[in-house]
Design goal:
Helices cover 77% and strands 0% of the residues. The chain has 4 helices and no strands. The radius of gyration is 12 Å and the shape is globular.
Length: 87
């Protein structure tokens, strides 16, 4: 899970199509996913992680299809959701 989160963070940070404020917001959502990964038994965090995953997917949908973040979200978010038991 740590590696997936790290890859997602790097994709966000290197995404040229996101404004700085959007990057900050996206990274905040990744932080929620990180907290949920560290406490998988916490149902409140699990619910927040599901919302965060949806927010990140929404951000990625508004970007051109060939960006690193879109590719990262398409690959990493389903894997993270499975590990967190969100799918």
């Amino acid at each position: 899970m740590k590696e997936l989160i790290s890859q997602l963070q790097k994709a966000i940070e290197s995404e040229d199509n996101l404004k700085d404020v959007q990057k900050v917001e996206a990274l905040e959502e990744v932080e929620i996913l990180t907290k949920a990964a560290n406490k998988p038994e916490d149902s409140k965090l699990k619910k927040e992680a599901k919302r965060s995953s949806n927010v990140l997917a929404g951000i990625a949908k508004n970007l051109p299809h060939a960006t690193k973040l879109v590719e990262g979200c398409n690959e990493l978010l389903p894997a993270m959701a499975q590990l967190l038991g969100l799918s």
